């Protein structure tokens, strides 16, 4: 089963702006060229040379310069970062990604979109990872508000935010950590149609739902759009992470509606280390896909027991 | 050579003491093994044997590495 190819959208926003102003194609192209030349010159002026920790020479652009150039050129901040990366200038905030992602992969991340369903325990950890990695567009949904029982594991929950929508806290966190990420959160529980809308134009669907009830709808929505789905779930110190390609078996399918008794997570709970570990493992897979690399867990499930620290990768 | 058996989540308390070297009966299937250990078969949603998903009717062999996984949905 092929994964939908990931094509970062064009960095020369000047062309679109030209059309919006009613210019013809030649004028728009000329204007875009002039804009790109002016931006390239400004990027060189605003950036500075520094060595990477391994001694390689590097050129870096700090967050203040990204904001200033975005305002000066009327561009979204991530467009400035993509242009910088194309000129071998690394936004300073990504400098410590070093060789984990190439500059081209970093640009590709900034040109990508992830759809994140759920902003609770898994979703909060995933959002943190994806925002810091510089995933350019993240559309998320969760209709819940924070309550005190979330505090044991949910990164976005705070004592002073009880009763507030998870979507609102997520938006605040994303903006505070990385304003280059275009984050849109919907404060609603989505049905399959709503999920399909959220997943439109994304390259990866991310399952951060709690419980098994809605997971089948998300598997169907992602498959219908031809998107890979990165899924994870926890009960106590047991966890599962998997990547589901369209039409392939998913843990949600295998679990069905659950067992005959109470759900495992309602018996064993959702402790923070298990939730954070799964969110991090899902994030690694999501970022790998958005960077244009093949998934590591396609057709497989990673079964985890943190009690014994045993990890098994199983072909489904 | 005995089998290595791993029971996850709510199935973990039913793990036998000698799970890492559990003696198999001749021709025993996953289902028969689970019934012998009073593990509720309806709760087993993923069976894996030597890193591959398997059916409950899979006949086990000495040295097999087996995992029994119930439905897990928390986040």
Automatic annotation (TrEMBL), chain A:
Residues 94-315 form the THIF-type NAD/FAD binding fold domain. Coiled coil: none annotated. GO terms for molecular function: tRNA threonylcarbamoyladenosine dehydratase; ubiquitin-like modifier activating enzyme activity. GO terms for biological process: cyclic threonylcarbamoyladenosine biosynthetic process. SUPFAM superfamilies: Activating enzymes of the ubiquitin-like proteins (SSF69572). This is HesA/MoeB/ThiF family protein. It comes from Solidesulfovibrio aerotolerans.
UniProtKB/TrEMBL annotation, chain B:
CDD domains: Ubl_MoaD_like (cd17040). SUPFAM superfamilies: MoaD/ThiS (SSF54285). This is MoaD/ThiS family protein. It comes from Solidesulfovibrio aerotolerans.
């Amino acid at each position: 089963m092929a994964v939908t190819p990931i094509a970062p959208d064009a960095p020369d926003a000047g062309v679109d702006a030209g059309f919006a102003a009613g210019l013809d194609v030649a004028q728009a192209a000329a204007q875009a060229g002039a804009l790109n030349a002016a931006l390239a010159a400004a990027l060189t002026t605003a950036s500075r040379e520094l060595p990477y920790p391994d001694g390689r020479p590097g050129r870096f652009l700090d967050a203040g310069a990204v904001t200033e150039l975005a305002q000066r050129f009327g561009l979204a901040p991530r467009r400035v970062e993509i242009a910088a990366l194309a000129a071998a200038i690394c936004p300073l905030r990504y400098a410590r990604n070093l060789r984990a992602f190439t500059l081209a992969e970093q640009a590709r991340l900034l040109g990508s979109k992830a759809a994140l369903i759920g902003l609770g325990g898994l979703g909060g950890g995933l959002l943190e990872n994806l925002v810091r990695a510089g995933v350019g567009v993240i559309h998320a949904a969760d209709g819940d508000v924070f309550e005190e029982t979330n505090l044991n594991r949910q990164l976005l929950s705070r004592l002073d935010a009880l009763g507030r929508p998870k979507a609102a806290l997520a938006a605040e966190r994303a903006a505070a950590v990385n304003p280059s990420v275009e984050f849109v959160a919907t404060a609603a529980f989505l049905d399959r149609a709503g999920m399909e809308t959220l997943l439109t134009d994304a390259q990866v669907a991310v399952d951060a739902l709690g419980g098994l009830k809605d997971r089948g709808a998300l598997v169907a929505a992602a498959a219908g759009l031809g998107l890979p789905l990165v899924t994870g779930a926890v009960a106590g110190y047991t966890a599962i992470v998997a990547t589901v390609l369209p039409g392939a078996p998913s843990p949600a399918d295998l679990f069905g509606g659950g067992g005959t008794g109470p759900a495992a997570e309602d018996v064993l709970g959702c402790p923070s280390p298990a939730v954070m570990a799964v969110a991090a493992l899902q994030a690694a897979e999501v970022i790998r896909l958005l960077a244009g690399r093949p998934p590591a867990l396609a057709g497989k499930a990673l079964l985890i027991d943190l009690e014994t620290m045993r990890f098994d990768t199983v072909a489904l | 050579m005995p089998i290595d058996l791993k029971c996850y989540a709510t199935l973990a308390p039913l793990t036998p003491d000698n799970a890492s070297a559990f003696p198999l009966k001749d021709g025993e299937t996953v289902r028969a093994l689970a019934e012998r250990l009073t593990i509720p078969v309806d709760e087993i949603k993923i069976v894996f044997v030597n890193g591959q998903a398997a059916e409950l009717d899979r006949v086990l062999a000495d040295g097999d590495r087996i995992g029994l996984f119930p439905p897990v949905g928390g986040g």
